[in-house]
Amino acid sequence: MTLKLEPFDDVLPDSTVWIDYLNERVTSPEKDFLMKLVLGGYDIWVCPPVFQEVLQGARSKKELTIACRAFRKCFRGRMGIYKVAEYGAEIYRTLRTQGITIRKPNDCLIAAYCILNGLALLHHDHDFDQIEQHFPLVVVR
Fold first, then answer.
1. Domain boundary among 72, 101, 125
2. pTM (2 decimals)?
């Protein structure tokens, strides 16, 4: 499977993709896509939950250094954290009333951040597939 760089101007990779990026042994279409973004000088975004998840999951000083370098080049929105949290909670509650439980509530925050900032999400996480079916989340395919 090949993911297309166009028509996405601004992409936010989820922590699932960054973790693959840091692990030299893992291969995936999402990791390859992120590598193209990094090497091609595309606009890559990061939000606080992804930033935290990747840094806390770094398994070595080398991975932590690579992640910190990569994140320094990423764009960070100026969106108020409470506005994002409120929309993330709305996503979670709405899906729950429809019988859908998002396993990681941080995924609702990440989705809210993308929707509110007009960003495409690069991921390989089932929770986002659920969110995409009910909210205007743009996903890299």
1. 72
2. 0.92
